[in-house]
Amino acid sequence: MKTQTFIFIYSRKGEVKVLNSYDSTIFEQTKERKKWKHTATIDPCIFIEYLCNRCTDEQIIDEIMELKQ
User: Fold this and answer.
1) In what order do the strands lie in the sheet with 37-42?
2) Which residue among 19, 27, 46, 52 is the one 20 to 30 A from 34 at the CA level?
3) Could you tell me the sign of the dihedral formed by the alpha carbons of 46, 47, 50, 52, in that order?
């Protein structure tokens, strides 16, 4: 049986917060959540594989920086 894990990316003023499913569920219920923008939900295994196999060094930086927007 394959388990799929997702991480949730939030950003605020160039700062990034990365949470697992459980912590994201709790975070979504807090007042602090309103200060953060949800920028991505990713499967970390697929994302890392994509960065390593399909991106140049410059593209890797661009992909990571996009998570801050």
Assistant:
1) 15-20, 7-12, 37-42
2) 46
3) negative
What is the spatial distance between Cα 23 and Cα 11, in angstroms, rounded to a whole number? 15
Say how far apart CA 43 and CA 3 lie, in whole Å: 11
Evaluate whether 60 touches 4 at the Cβ level (below 8 Å). Answer: no
Q: Residue holding tokens 């992909």?
A: 63
DSSP H/E element including 20: strand 15-20
Residue 10 is which amino acid? Answer: Y
Task: Tell me the two tokens of residue 3.
Answer: 């388990």
Residue-wise pLDDT for 4-48, tens only, equals 899 999 999 999 999 999 999 999 999 999 999 999 999 999 999
